[in-house]
Structures are given as C-alpha cells and as structure tokens.
Amino acid sequence: MFLLALIAVLGAALIVNTTRLTSHQVPPGAPADITIDQAMAVTHLAGAIRFRTITTDDEARIAPDVWPTFHAYLAGIFPLTEKNLRRETVLNDSLLYTWTGRRPDLPPVILTAHMDVVPAAEDTLAQWTHPPFDGVVADGAIWGRGALDDKNAALGLLEAVEALLARGFTPERTIYLGFGHNEEAGAASSGAAAIAALLRSRGVHDAVLVDEGGWIFDKIPGVARHVALVGIAEKGYVSIELSVKTDGGHSSMPPRETAVGILARAIDRAETHPMPGRLDGAGAALFDTLAPEMSFGMRVLFANRWLTRPLLLNVLSKQPSTNASIRTTTAATMLRASAKDNVLASTAAAVLNFRLLPGDTPDTVMAHLGDVIGDPRVTIAPYHGERGDAASAESRTDGPEFAALSGAIRAVFPAVVVAPYLTVGATDARHYGNVARDLYRFVPVDQPGSTELLHAPNEHIQIDVYMKAIRGYAAIIRGISN
Ligand SMILES: [Zn+2]
C-alpha cells in the first residue's frame, strides 16, 4: 500500500515538473529592411573562394601576395563599407573594420570570422565534384574551400553591412568587424589575438561578440523543429604526455614488463576511466531550453533530471558528439617507442589530448590521470611543457544581448528553436575574453548535413542558404547594435 502511494506521488511529481516547463523562446525580431543583389553576392563569395588563403603548418607555403590582394578584393567589392568604415590591417594579414555608432559610450559589438581556410588534401582532390579553389557556382550552390568555414561568414557579414549602409543605417553601438588570417593554425601567433589586444589598448571592454561556432541543426533527438545552437562557452584544450623509462636492451631476453607494456596499460586505464560526465553549465542550459520544445516522453526525462540524470548521462555518453558535450574527453593521439623491432624501448611515450569541460583544468586532469593510472613508473607531464587552456567563461543567456540575438535569428528563421550550448571545438572567440563580456558562437546557416562538409571534400553552401545567412547577419547587426 505504502509502495503504491509512493509511486503515485512520484508519478504526480514527474508530471507536475513536466507540465511546469515553459518555452524560453523570444518572439521573432523585425527582419532588416535591406535589398541584396543575389547575383552579385554569389559572385563575391565565389570570387573570395578563388583566393588561396590557406593556412598550413608551414606558413611559407602561402603565396606572399595572397593577403594584400584579398584585402584589395574586399575593398573593391564593398565600396560603401570601404568609404564608411575604418579598415586597418593587423599583424599584416588580419583585418579590423570600425563602424562608429551614434552612441560610442555604449559597450560595442564585435563580429568576427576568419579569412583563412584549411588545405584540400592532395589525396582527396578526386572526390571534389568541383575543384576546391575554383569558386564554381553550380546546381544552386557555391562550391569550394571556405564556402562554409568561414568565408561565408566574413563575406556574409560584409554583404550585410554594405546593404545596411545602402539603406542609410547607422548603428547605435560601435561595431567592429574582426577577421583573422590564421584561425586554422591553432597555436601560431594569432591574428584574432592581435585584434583583441589592439581593441583592448583602445579601451574596449564588456563588448558583445558573435563568432563562428554553432549553426542551425535539423536533427536534434526529440525536437521536431530545427535548432539554432548558439555557443555560450567553449571547451579548453590540453595535451598530456605519458612516458615510461626502463633500461632498454636486446629483445631476446626481455623483462616481464616492458616500457611499451606499462605504457599500454596506462593508456588503457586513461581511456576506460575518463573524467566523470556532468550536466551543468552550458550543457544544462541547452537541455533547459530544449526540454519545453520536446515530445512529451522526452520532456518527462529532461524535466526530471534530479531523477533521470544517471540515465541521461549514460545515454549521452554513447555517441561521440553528445559525449563531448558532457565531459572532458580523452583522446590518445601520438605514440613513440623503439625504432627497431629487436630493440627494447628505453622510453615509451604517448600523448593524450583532452578537451576540457568548463570547471575542469589541466591540473585536475593531471590529478585524475595520476589516480586512474596508479603506477609511479608512468610519468605524467604537460606535452612540450605547454600548460594548455582552461575552458572559456560562460556567457549570459538571461540578458538583453542574448534575447536580441535570439530575436534576430528568429526574424529570419521564425520556426527555429534558439538554444545555448557548449562549443566543443576551438574558435577565435577564445582570444576575445579580455574585451568582450558575452561571446556567442553562431553562424546563421541552415543547411542540413553541413557539419560533415567542414574541412572535407565538396564543401559548398546553397545559394538560398547563403542569402538567408546575409539576412541573418543584417538582423543580428540591427538587433544587437541598438
Ligand atoms: Zn572556422
């Protein structure tokens, strides 16, 4: 009898929690009243793709005149922007545009994108329907490297600015456009970091920033509508080396345990005992926002996380993409041991790459590794002595900035659900923590299957998707600059 009553109370609590959920969606804002010449915009982006602004590990491989000619190209195709905004080069190859607002006393807006692209690997060239740097327009799409990452954002922003200028629009807040030239290079001296330092030296602080990161997804389990994922934080990054030193020697009389064997067990322990999963911060914010938009069964699960958390974490751990959003991930990436088949390794070493959830730090990861490996013969140290980066701070979702961004997205994509999330890859936004208070990682692109095209063959953007992206940027500029 008591058990029945308990089940009834529990059932009632689950239902009450579920029905109490209300949508977080803001009403669509006003669409920007702009005219875009589609044929021109397509020509501009296709032309931009033809510039081989490729970032490789070897900077010498970039043709030396590619950046100045690309800058001149942008100046030529966006004459109103060139006339009304101040354009500066930073670190020679990056660009900073300044569009002074009516109220320069208000915190400014920083809109960023990167102009460089990854190479098209030699052995994948045969898979491209259209060559990666020809900027071909065919089958209703613009094809080539940078069509989605990230020349669509740089050119899309400039098209939006140009169209707004043509309508006589002046922003209230000052707007900066920051276009880095080496985002894909990782640790190299970063154009974005130099732009941020320059802005800082000019007194910029507490800005609102929009960079790449999320876009609009069509396949979020349990949600029928497309979802605009806006990154409010990004994961940190650290690589850690495990190494084992032994006497080495000839392999004809090996000891019971070799350096390689000891190392292999340590890697296995690290992989099978990852950092614990968590549903908090940006991850929790995502599910709080999505839950009210889900089917009833899924709503029950997500509205009652006090009860369902272990189950949810278990399910989310199964897929690499969802696993990455709930924990600091462990990826064994490099191995080094003996160079000869009949020589015992005197040193065996492996590198593990970790992407850090907010709250975890390189130090907590090292401590965790020490615990789970539990073998003093394994030395655990930062790879190349680099201490790595902690995750970014989390930007606000309850302020007017996020509401303005959401309203702007819904002005152009009225049917989408806008949700905050944790960006698992690294973006240039991480360099702007000093000058911006709220950093949102989102590109207004709604093209199913786009994620698979990043850094891959046949990168392309459909023309209608690109036109909407430009309108999206115009709405974002209007929405958050006023
Ligand atoms: Zn990118």
Number of strands: 18
- List bound small molecules: zinc ion
Estimated structural class: alpha+beta
Average pLDDT confidence is: 93
CATH class of the largest domain: Alpha Beta
Low-confidence stretches: none
Task: Give the helix level as a range of percent.
Answer: 25-40%
Radius of gyration: 25 Å
Taking the sheet with the most strands, its summary is:
6 strands, mixed
Alpha-carbon distance between the two ends: 62 Å
Main sheet strand line-up: 1-2-6-3-7-17
Task: State the CATH architecture of the largest domain.
Answer: 3-Layer(aba) Sandwich
Shape: globular
Folded structure, characterized:
The protein is of the alpha+beta class. It has helices at 2-20, 38-49, 66-77, 79-84, 151-166, 191-201, 259-272, 281-290, 296-303, 305-317, 320-326, 362-373, 400-412, 463-481, and strands spanning 86-90, 94-99, 109-114, 137-138, 141-143, 175-180, 207-214, 216-217, 227-234, 236-245, 249-250, 329-336, 343-344, 347-356, 378-382, 417-423, 436-442, 460-462. The protein has two domains: 38-232 and 391-481, Aminopeptidase, CATH 3.40.630.10; 236-385, Alpha-Beta Plaits (2-Layer Sandwich). The strands form five sheets. It has a six-stranded mixed sheet. A four-stranded antiparallel sheet has the order 12-14-10-15, with helices on one face. β4 and β5 form a beta hairpin. The longest helix has 19 residues, at 2-20. The radius of gyration is 25 Å and the shape is globular. The model has no long low-confidence stretch (mean pLDDT 93). The structure holds zinc ion. The site of zinc ion has 5 residues, from loops.
